[in-house]
Specification:
The complex is a heterodimer of chains A (263) and B (288).
Chain A lengths: L12 E12 L2 E12 L3 E5 L6 H8 L7 E6 L2 E2 L2 E4 L2 E4 L2 H8 L2 E4 L11 H11 L5 H14 L15 H13 L5 E5 L7 H16 L3 E5 L3 H7 L2 E6 L2 E6 L1 H6 L4 H10 L1
Parallel strand pairs in A: 3-10, 3-11, 8-9, 9-10
Antiparallel strand pairs in A: 1-2, 1-4, 4-5, 6-7, 11-12
Helix pairs in contact in A: 3-4, 3-5, 4-5, 5-6
Chain B lengths: L1 H5 L26 H23 L5 H8 L2 H33 L3 H15 L3 H9 L1 H4 L2 E2 L2 E2 H4 L2 H26 L3 H9 L4 H31 L11 H12 L2 H30 L8
Antiparallel strand pairs in B: 1-2
The chains are: A alpha/beta (263), B mainly alpha (288).
The structure holds adenosine-5'-triphosphate and magnesium ion.
Main location (chain B): membrane
Protein name (chain B): Amino acid ABC transporter permease
Family (chain B): Belongs to the binding-protein-dependent transport system permease family.
């Protein structure tokens, strides 16, 4: 296994994950993950609680460091620089620059409560990309209209419903024009009647050709939107393939057991 | 209003203990007899105390009025005010730096911060002040200049009070930073915001909600605490009235002069704190 150089990835993969291991103390949470995600495709990750889904997602934008293996996004190694046969850890400034190309949407939104909706969305373009404020505001207004919240620009997050907050969080992630969007259970903290409005926004992005990895328990959404469904258990990928295969004709016993519980 | 009578209201179930057909019973709150009685007693005691204070000639209210706004007292008050402001600003600036050191990933900075806080919290401010006042005995010259010329009593007061204040401010700020939800930092990191921007724009504004109440406490404590500089002959509010009563022996009325000013300023500060707290609570009010 060798890590790629920027020129030599050679595939049309937007994300390459190779033999990634990660432990928290004695607990090995990721036990050798291999995964490729092609540009423009939607990958849905399923799996029981504690199987390492969030941890995997967090390693992709280096919120969590890997112990072994490597991850590349758009042909660039995440968190490391390769020289010869060594991977050198990048300085924080460089990691931050890489993160601006990867959007992350959290289960509990993590909007900045002291900033208005508009300020939440323009913060990163201005501070991390150095965009002029005027351009950032114009772009943010377009994004808010796209997620159906144009009239909420001046509101504070706590004045919005959970579904509206998550849509703002999606707009905030999109404001950096990322190459890749990561969603960690974007609808799990929502009341059932609000799940649909958030999934609709994500579906719309999928149709627009955004590359996405979505951790979710919404099987219906996976069936409708996913190009690839990945089933994880105990830190390994047990099974992956098109939704019609993994969801309807699972080969592995563990996948079948899981699906029979959530369906 | 005929439209209203047409609406068929569901009949209200009657609470037990009455007859159907009666009007819906009115709600009568519990009578707080004890509270009223207590209020009357407290007011009587206060009035009694006030009368005795006003009537007792030993308080010499005339003398109090005479000195309350003299130049010397006002100059002392002015010094107390700006000394407090300067010590608060410098103390919190240094304290914030120490808090950030303490929470940084850098072991050396953590140790420096911990050591500083340990040292300056474990000795009385009086001792620290006297130490800085006599530092000339240890280092007669600093960078070729006589220490005595370099460090006037007022400079010693600013340095001594600030270094002490910073140790407490550091813990207040650290507590505030820790009160900010971890997800906020992760969101900021995943958006590519740098460490300085994260601190200033995301973490500190949210930390302010838990920093302001203890900081208000410290401000009021510092205002009164500056009176300790009277022992190194800095002419603050307390020292100014002391100078007068050493001359006139009107000890009580002059202490009352100082007291009235301290009370007036702390009252203003308490009101100010209310508005500052309201400012930093923005975005947290309102319902979903
Ligand atoms: N920072 C951490 N320190 C220690 N253990 C952790 C940490 N983060 C995660 N874990 C542990 O790693 C395991 C996998 O966690 P992870 O959050 O990736 O699971 P998950 O598949 O996302 O589960 P869920 O569906 O409940 O979100 C869990 O046992 C969790 O307790
Ligand atoms: Mg998770």
């Amino acid at each position: 296994m060798s890590a790629p150089t920027k020129e030599a990835t050679g595939s049309d993969a937007m994300v390459e994950i190779r033999s990634v291991h990660k432990s928290f103390g004695p607990l090995e949470v990721l036990r050798g993950i291999d995964l490729s995600v092609r540009a423009g495709e939607v990958t849905v990750v399923l799996g029981p609680s504690g199987s390492g889904k969030s941890t995997l997602l967090r390693t992709i934008n280096h919120l969590e460091k890997v112990d072994q293996g490597w991850i590349s996004v758009d042909g660039t190694l995440v968190g490391y620089r390769r020289s010869g046969n060594k991977l050198y850890e990048l300085r924080e400034r460089e990691v931050l620059r890489q993160r601006t190309r990867i959007g992350f949407v959290f289960q509990n939104f993590n909007l900045f409560p002291h900033l208005t909706v508009l300020e939440n969305v323009i913060e990163a373009p201005i501070a991390a990309l150095g965009r002029p404020r005027k351009d950032a505001v114009a772009a943010a207004e377009k994004l808010l209209a796209r997620v159906g919240l144009a009239e909420k620009a001046g509101a504070y997050p706590k004045q919005l419903s959970g579904g509206q907050q998550q849509r703002v969080a999606i707009a905030r992630a999109l404001a950096l024009e990322p190459k890749l969007l990561l969603f960690d259970e974007p609808t799990s903290a929502l009341d059932p009647e609000l799940v649909g409005e958030v999934l609709d926004v994500i579906k719309d992005l999928a149709r627009g050709g955004t590359t996405m990895i979505v951790v979710t328990h919404e099987i219906g959404f996976a069936r409708e939107v996913a190009d690839t469904v990945v089933f994880m258990d105990e830190g390994r990928i047990v099974e992956q393939g098109p939704p019609a295969d993994v969801l309807d004709r699972p080969v592995q016993e563990r996948t079948r057991a899981f699906l029979s519980k959530v369906l | 209003m005929s439209a209203q009578t047409e609406i068929h209201a569901p009949s209200l179930p009657f609470p037990p203990g009455g007859n159907a057909g009666e009007e819906t019973p009115r709600i009568v709150p519990v009578r707080r007899t004890g509270q009223w009685a207590a209020a009357v007693v407290v007011l009587l005691l206060l009035a009694g105390a006030l009368v005795s204070v006003v009537r007792n000639d030993a308080f010499q209210w005339g003398v109090v009025g005479e000195y309350l706004t003299t130049d010397a007292v006002l100059r002392g008050l002015g010094l107390t005010l700006w000394l407090t402001a300067l010590v608060m600003v410098l103390g919190f600036a240094l304290g914030t730096l120490l808090a950030v050191f303490r929470l940084s990933g850098n072991r050396v900075l953590q140790a420096v911060s911990w050591g500083y806080i340990w040292l300056f919290r474990s000795t009385p401010i009086l001792v620290q002040l006297l130490f800085w006042f006599n530092i000339g005995a240890l280092y007669p010259q600093i960078l070729g200049v006589d220490t005595v010329n370099l460090l006037s009593p007022i400079t010693v007061a600013v340095i001594g009070l600030t270094l002490h204040e910073a140790a407490y401010a550091a813990e207040v700020v650290r507590g505030g930073i820790l009160s900010v939800e971890r997800g906020q930092l992760e969101a900021a990191q995943s958006l590519g915001l740098g460490p300085w921007r994260r601190l200033r724009r995301i973490v500190l504004p949210q930390a302010m909600r838990s920093i302001v109440p203890p900081a208000g406490n410290m401000l009021i404590g510092t205002l009164k605490g500056t009176s300790i500089v009277s022992i190194i002959a800095v002419q603050d509010l307390l020292y100014s009235v002391q100078l007068v009563y050493h001359r006139t022996y009107e000890v009580i009325p002059l202490l009352l002069v100082a007291t009235l000013w301290y009370v007036a300023v702390t009252s203003l500060l308490s009101i100010g704190q209310y508005y500052v707290e309201r400012h930093y609570a923005r975005g947290t009010a309102g319902t979903r």
